[in-house]
Design brief:
The chain is of the alpha/beta class. It is built from twelve helices and nine strands. Helix 4 (about 65-80) runs parallel beside helix 5 and helix 11 (about 240-255) packs antiparallel against helix 12 (about 260-275). The protein binds nicotinamide-adenine-dinucleotide (NAD).
Amino acid sequence: MKIAFIGLGNMGGGMAANLVKAGHQVHAFDLAQAALDRAVANGCVPFANMRDGVADVDAVVSMLPNGAIVKAVYSGDVIGHAPTGALLLDCSTIDVASAREVTVLAQAGGYRMVDAPVSGGIAAANAGTLTFMVGGTEQDFAEAQPILAAMGKAVIHAGESGAGQAAKICNNMLLGASMVATCEAFKLAERLGLDLQTFYDISSKASGQCWSMTSYCPVPGVGPETPADHDYQGGFATALMLKDLKLAMAAAQDAGAPVPMGHRAEELYAAFDAAGNGGMDFSAIIKTL
Ligand code: NAD
């Protein structure tokens, strides 16, 4: 297939490379020359003008920073410029309302579109082991599936348009809150004189067990190797966790859903980010407790 890929940053760079590896011809577009150069080194065909890049493709995939940029890119340079037969797939993490809005715009222009945000960070994007949560019709999901499968280990249909974004922010709100709770439990255990490895051995087999503890333990030297073992470098940046928590809070407000734990996690991550820790892995929040 001929696929246009827009947004070749930390995530998009590896994803586009995996589409090339799967045998697709990938038209690359990014505002940053360094991102474009890397895409060329990975076998993509560069385009200086996005409208030229999408002109004759079978699909458009985007991996962009936020909803405002996604709306601007699709309404300005994709809709009306790509062939109407092309399937549009936005993999960025954006607010549910913007995702639905862009899909409505695309549909009005005669296109089919899915929202397909990912779980998994830069390493998973490079390795082609992302999990995609997809919002769109059954038929559009079926068409999107093989394209996304070339970049991931799991492709799951979440529901209608916007459902992919909804699933993503609910999952990450749970992750943010569970990480803070996991950190608190370890710090309290320490104050109570427990050996932290012993507490891990007990809690990881008891009812407090969760992913933040057993797959991403925030305590150095306990559990599997995690960013905590590398002074909280790499992993999932605090700034990105905060972005997802803010999206979750906005969605909760729109939906009238009470989310007291998510709200508290958002406050704690906002303070940690404001103190200059946006680039650290989100498990580093344990340092504040
Ligand atoms: P990034 O900033 O590294 O990449 C974004 C790219 O988009 C940049 O190369 C930038 O130049 C380009 N860009 C911005 N505006 C553009 C425009 N108008 N036209 C073309 N290109 C444009 O960000 P990232 O870490 O790759 O994240 C991308 C998306 O993936 C975000 O929505 C993020 O929330 C989501 N995400 C990131 C991670 C992660 O661990 N980094 C994990 C899951 C989801």
